[in-house]
Automatic annotation (TrEMBL):
It holds the Pfam family PhzC-PhzF. InterPro entries: Phenazine_PhzF-like. This is PhzF family phenazine biosynthesis protein. SUPFAM superfamilies: Diaminopimelate epimerase-like. It comes from the Bacteria. Keywords: Isomerase. Belongs to the PhzF family. Gene3D superfamilies: Diaminopimelate Epimerase, Chain A, domain 1 (3.10.310.10). PANTHER family: PHENAZINE BIOSYNTHESIS PROTEIN, PHENAZINE BIOSYNTHESIS-LIKE DOMAIN-CONTAINING PROTEIN. NCBIfam families: PhzF_family.
Length: 269
């Protein structure tokens, strides 16, 4: 069977966030899916198979880190939609049935893909004991998304602080259900993006995820409320970076970005 590695939220190879993508006829047992994801050893590997015509979705979609299955993943959804469209397997809008509900993906004329995700709720929260020490930075505010994606959105003082983070991943592991999203407003309002972020997910086996699409379902409402605009651009990442364009539409958030296939081959398993 064919397996592909796709860099998501970028139009350049070796940047953005890489994801494994396998298109299947049906889902094998969970243990096999987990072993493949561990072998691929990227933050997520996506597995998809077609569904019968006439239903609420066109493809079933699941995502696995090297250690566990996750409820929502943006960059691997973008990677899967890219593979479907670039190979001619699908045309027009695609609907995915996933753990978090039905997700849409539409190929745009400019080569990007727009995904339709549920917006995350944000609840102000106290700064957890040990968070500032684990991050190595002073925290401005914390918001919890525990009833949705399970992340803490943590605002820091400024963009240079976010970019310079070198956290204690072992200490962060116990501080959230899924991950810690550190964020700040862009230092230069004319730099082509509105806010920056970095995502740390040691609780699910990923020390740092370069560009986390699902986190932007929380970052979009957070920064849209601050800036008073529904359309924003986020830059995420440390050593690897990518661009996520967000559009807030009430209980849905549209995530837009490029993707590029960098590796394609045969899986013998």
């Amino acid at each position: 069977m064919r397996i592909r590695i796709v860099d998501a939220f970028t139009d350049q190879p070796f940047s953005g966030n890489p994801a494994g993508v396998l298109l299947l006829d049906s889902f094998p047992d969970d243990a096999w899916l987990q072993r493949v994801a561990a072998e691929v050893n990227l933050s997520e590997t996506a597995f998809a198979h077609p569904l019968p015509a006439g239903g609420e979705a066109d493809w079933a979609l699941r995502w696995f880190t090297p250690t566990t299955e996750v409820d929502m993943c943006g960059h691997a959804t973008l990677a899967t939609a890219h593979v479907l469209h670039s190979t001619g397997t699908a045309s027009g809008p695609v609907r995915f049935a996933a753990r978090c509900g039905v997700l849409g993906a539409t190929a745009e004329a400019d080569g990007t893909i727009t995904m339709d995700f549920p917006t995350s709720s944000l609840t102000p929260a106290p700064v957890p004991d040990g968070l500032e020490k684990a991050l190595g930075a002073e925290v401005v505010a914390v918001h919890d998304t525990a009833d949705h994606i399970g992340d803490l959105v943590v605002e820091l003082r400024d963009e240079p602080t976010v970019r310079a983070l070198a956290p204690d991943h072992a200490a962060l592991k116990a501080l959230s259900t899924r991950g810690i999203i550190a964020t700040a407003a862009a230092q230069n309002p004319d730099g082509g993006y509105d806010f920056v972020s970095r995502g740390f997910f040691p609780a699910v086996g990923i020390d740092e995820d370069p560009v986390t699409g699902s986190a932007h379902t929380a970052l979009a409402p957070y920064w849209s409320a601050r800036f008073g605009r529904d359309d924003l651009v986020g830059l995420q990442g440390g050593a690897r970076t990518g661009i996520v364009r967000t559009r807030l539409r009430g209980d849905r958030t549209l995530l837009n970005g490029h993707a590029v296939t960098v590796i394609e081959g045969d899986l013998h398993a």
